[in-house]
Amino acid sequence: MSSQDIPEENLPAEQDTEHGAVAVADEENPFADPGLPPHEHRIQDIDARAAKRSERTVALLFTVSMLATLGFIASYVTIPNDRSIYVFPIGHISAMNFALGLTLGVALFTIGAGAVHWARTLMSDVEVADERHPIEAAPEVKAKVLADFQAGAKESQLGRRSLIRNTMFGALAMVPLSGLFLLRDLGTLPGTKLRHTLWSQGKLLVNMNTNQPMRPSDIAVGSLTFAKPEGLEETNEDFQKQIAKAALMLVRLQPENIKDKRELSWSHEGIVAYSKICTHVGCPISLYEQQTHHVLCPCHQSTFDLSDGGRVIFGPAGHALPQLHIGVNADGYLEALGDFEEPVGPAFWERG
């Protein structure tokens, strides 16, 4: 039977949709347009009390953001920058950094959470399909876009929900205050703080692992040992701040393998002491090549020759590792004979 024999009312209708697709597939149009699923109303669309609850929730999130911003400012002003706290399982960290990160994170998160909750529960969720158009839209399309924007602005209920509007504007206005307070320290120079560590004349070298003073016999040829100044304990409130400058590594070389004359005179029986802090960006150095006497920074592969004044032989580091002048006291323990003669760590400041 041909299509001409079928009653016209029984033929499937090829209904052209707004986008040029067809409702029923055929050979010329193998993909039918299923259209949009029926819209399902949310509880907030039909229950005014539920909508009010959502509004209060969004306002609460924006209010928490404002309180967190005030907490950020209060933390920055009141917490000393040398105070540390113990946070499990991280360990001792700066109390100010912890408070600033926590309050700023809460301020930003609650703004985002409030905006998402507002959009999901109160703004219109009706799906609107629109045909793609050339980059230069026709006048009628421009008029439609403008009308859609105005309708969307009306459906957002920004004018109607004054509680949400006011708290949102308050939260957005207060968040930049955090940055204004941070600008206060941009012009403050460190003075001589970066040029001094806890090392001084007579300070014993204490093994970082055993927490005991070291004798020359404790360091074998070819070994790498980490040390800290006498009296610096992990329980100290400023431990992280001080160890970041005073961390020391000791290597025992054969005296005849030491090329630099000053390095030889500053060592004891071939034991040389250098700063453990890489001079690139301050990472702790921990990799030692026994045969070449090279130490490698694991962060960016800066390599230093401990047999030749700690000079840089590879990588982005800008200058040699600072050496600590060491000797032995009357009791036979290794001791410092002074502080480093130059700042340890990255060359972020003028070294002239």
TrEMBL record:
<keyword id="KW-0001">2Fe-2S</keyword>
<dbReference type="Pfam" id="PF19297">
    <property type="entry name" value="QcrA_N"/>
</dbReference>
<dbReference type="InterPro" id="IPR005805">
    <property type="entry name" value="Rieske_Fe-S_prot_C"/>
</dbReference>
<keyword id="KW-0560">Oxidoreductase</keyword>
<dbReference type="InterPro" id="IPR014349">
    <property type="entry name" value="Rieske_Fe-S_prot"/>
</dbReference>
<comment type="function">
    <text>Iron-sulfur subunit of the cytochrome bc1 complex, an essential component of the respiratory electron transport chain required for ATP synthesis. The bc1 complex catalyzes the oxidation of menaquinol and the reduction of cytochrome c in the respiratory chain. The bc1 complex operates through a Q-cycle mechanism that couples electron transfer to generation of the proton gradient that drives ATP synthesis.</text>
</comment>
<keyword id="KW-0408">Iron</keyword>
<keyword id="KW-1015">Disulfide bond</keyword>
<dbReference type="InterPro" id="IPR045603">
    <property type="entry name" value="QcrA_N"/>
</dbReference>
<keyword id="KW-0812">Transmembrane</keyword>
<protein>
    <recommendedName>
        <fullName>Cytochrome bc1 complex Rieske iron-sulfur subunit</fullName>
    </recommendedName>
</protein>
<dbReference type="Pfam" id="PF00355">
    <property type="entry name" value="Rieske"/>
</dbReference>
<keyword id="KW-1133">Transmembrane helix</keyword>
<dbReference type="InterPro" id="IPR036922">
    <property type="entry name" value="Rieske_2Fe-2S_sf"/>
</dbReference>
<keyword id="KW-0249">Electron transport</keyword>
<feature type="region of interest" description="Disordered">
    <location>
        <begin position="1"/>
        <end position="40"/>
    </location>
</feature>
<comment type="similarity">
    <text>Belongs to the Rieske iron-sulfur protein family.</text>
</comment>
<keyword id="KW-0679">Respiratory chain</keyword>
<feature type="transmembrane region" description="Helical">
    <location>
        <begin position="58"/>
        <end position="79"/>
    </location>
</feature>
<keyword id="KW-0813">Transport</keyword>
<keyword id="KW-0479">Metal-binding</keyword>
<keyword id="KW-0472">Membrane</keyword>
<feature type="domain" description="Rieske">
    <location>
        <begin position="240"/>
        <end position="335"/>
    </location>
</feature>
<dbReference type="InterPro" id="IPR017941">
    <property type="entry name" value="Rieske_2Fe-2S"/>
</dbReference>
<feature type="transmembrane region" description="Helical">
    <location>
        <begin position="163"/>
        <end position="183"/>
    </location>
</feature>
<keyword id="KW-0411">Iron-sulfur</keyword>
<feature type="transmembrane region" description="Helical">
    <location>
        <begin position="99"/>
        <end position="119"/>
    </location>
</feature>
<keyword id="KW-1003">Cell membrane</keyword>
